[in-house]
Task: structure prediction
Amino acid sequence: MKQLLKVDGLHLRFGGLQVLNDLSLTVREGQIVGLIGPNGAGKTSCFNCLTGIYQPQGGRVYFDGRDVSHLPTHRRARRGMARTWQNLGVIDSLTVTENVMLAQHQRAGYSALAGMLGLAGTWHRERELRRDAAEIIEYFGLDGVADERAGELPYGVRKTCDMAMALATDPRLLMLDEPASGLSPEEALGLSTTLRELRDRLRLTILMIEHHVPLVAEVCDYVYVLNFGELLTEGEPEAIQRHPEVIAAYLGGTAESPAEPEAADDDTVQFASEPPEWPLMAEGKSNGTA
Amino acid sequence: MATATMTFGRIKVARRFGLALRVAVVLALLVLAALPLLLGGDVWAQRISRAAIYAIIGLSINTLTGHAGQISLGHQAFVGIGAFAAAFMASRLGAPLGFGLAAGALAGMATAAIVGMVALRVTGLYLALVTLAFGLTAETTIFNWREFTGGGAGAFAPRPALVSSDHAFALLCLGVLALVLYADWRLVSTKAGRALAAVRNDERIASTLGINVTGYKLAAFSLSGLAAGLAGGLFAHWNQVVQAMDFEFQVALVWVLMTVVGGLRSRLGVILASAFFALLPLTLPNFLAGLPWQPPFLNEAVYHVLPPFIVVVMLLIVLRFFPGGLGQLLRPATRWLTKGGDR
Result:
């Protein structure tokens, strides 16, 4: 399978704080790849580097075989990199429909000036965009709230709206920042069906940050584990769950003698939705880059 | 919901009747608004021109502040440069009115684009300060550039024969206002409006949706400057002479405040508030001075400084009680007029 996203040796520093240290990862076309790690491991910072919101001090990002490291965020988005946000990427003052149509910006098919002058084609395109938006909205079951302002909707609905917006950009790579947070365990598992369907029907590639390990184990083809801004390990989800360093990073203790995994009845870890705060387990840190 | 109600004949009739009623109300309001122009003589024609020019300025500030979430306290520079450019074209080059107005609009746009480039680096309070400083600097430099502005005597901007009468000129101003309104309506109804809403709310989200935040901010400044310069050109021909003192900081402040009082992103509110503040200095002092009883210590000179105070008081009332401005107050009525109140 073709490499869609390749990250090569990312270094990100904020002042004296090393947020990402020599991070490399690869996402192949059609894969669903998980990015996991304790709080503060640098997962969201990694997303921000990939989308160009942060400018890393070192390293390259290749998308679809081309170096996008120096492209501004909106040009990366136009190449097909879409993302959702941990604290939601919806515009509260717009309705759900308007938000989805906002996300269709890059494929509106007319210039901003033409729209402002009210040229003939733009009216037609607006109607088409609205129809497309309605389809996406219906797919996500948001039709009941299509004309409500996003800011007035409950968290879960806005989260769905965020996902609908990411899809409306017509992406090739969907980057999801904790899609299951705030969802009930059943809803979270239901998400795996949605994600697979998106991949298979729309031929999307998905990279997701997630704490909810049952979901990661269920849906991901491959997992990268981040700790202290470094790659701890990578592999198939089953292997990752048994990996001693991962267990150590999540539950404390050292890699040599992992702490008793109370939550697990066999050797696999059932991470809590919010893993322990990182500084508590400083000894757990080790350089297990693959 | 709508499709379900359509099956009932009676409701269909009611909706159609509602539509007729709404159209009638709109027509009646338009006729009412046109009355001063039809019956009021030259004085009212002049006032209406001024109101229309202020409305264009209000919409210009609305583009920048309402749509893009940026602020300009130096709008007198954009309007003034537009006015001087139009006057220069008319009196020095003898160019036709259309060219003068276009030159004014382009001059305003170019100036605002330059300020906009600075605005890409600063936000909020600092942006307010930068634009304020720019406006004040323009007043003391460009507006005192004798060759361009005619110095203290001002620059003359005679009207061509076609719009030499006050009534014809008022129609011209209303026509330009209509164009600006149309552009604003299409702007917010298409992708640029949604993009600006995103830029205004969260630049990061906007950029990950493929929106060129820098480009849209610059475009908002340029558009705002374009409308401001256009209004300046109209102002030049309205007054037929332009002087630096027409564009002092105080008017820029009034323009920003009137736009907020009207209600950001409310076209109707901005137009009404702009018209009100355009006419207030013309009508209020005379009205008060003409009252049979005059309070002690007050005289016509005092009445002339009242309007800015009134702006400030109205701003405080708006900020305290209805932050959406006049537009918010009028929303139930406008919603009924545009959507039939069924949603």
Notes: Chain B touches chain A through 29 residues (CB under 8 Å). Chain B has one domain: 13-339. The longest helix of chain B spans residues 9-39. Chain B has 16 helices and two strands.
